[in-house]
Amino acid sequence: MTGVAPGIALRLNANRPEPARTDDGNEWSYGRCWLWCGQVHTPVLWLGTAQTAGGVAAPFTVCGPCVQALHDAIWDHAMTMDRRAVARAAAAGGGGPQPWGAPAPAP
Ligand SMILES: [Zn+2]
Predict the structure, then answer these.
(1) How many CA within 13 A on the CB side of residue 89?
(2) How far from chain centre, in Å, is Cα 28?
(3) Distance (Å) from CA 24 to ligand 1 centroid
(4) In sequence order, what are the beta bridge partners of 46?
(5) How far apart are CA 45 and CA 18, in angstroms?
(6) Which residue ranges are recorded for the region named Disordered (predicted)?
């Protein structure tokens, strides 16, 4: 979540959406999970195309537990980046969105 106003991810986190699950109506198929678990025949969700050096590409499919771990890692990253952006905006004397529960800026 880059390029957005500071505090947006922190606000959205209160209603963080759930990641895809195998029973959620998405088009899950059986195949290889390209992330951490290394399973080769498991329900997977296509997340896009992965490409490596030389232009070689493969369907980037991920199993449910790895989708959850990826979802959490991306949200953790967004929250970290957002906290830094909020701190930079505050240090620069700017107002802008503040995380929920943050004290109101002094007048
Ligand atoms: Zn996996």
Answers:
(1) 18
(2) 20
(3) 17
(4) 61
(5) 15
(6) 88-107
pTM recorded for the entire structure: 0.72
User: Tokens for 56?
Assistant: 């070689």
Residue 71: alpha-carbon gap to chain centroid: 5
Binned at pLDDT 50, 70 and 90, residue 14 comes out as confident
Closest CA to 61 of 27, 99, 12: 27
Q: How far apart are CA 22 and CA 29, in angstroms?
A: 9
For residue 98, what are the CA distances in angstroms to 4, 86, 90, 106? 13, 7, 9, 13
Residue 33: which residues within 8 A CB-CB, separation 6 or more? 39, 40, 42, 44, 61, 62, 63, 66
40: CA distance to ligand 1 center in Å? 9
- Quote the CA–CA distance of 11 and 43 in Å, as a whole number: 33
Range in 7-16, 44-53, 57-66 with the lowest mean pLDDT: 7-16
The one-character DSSP state at 77 is H
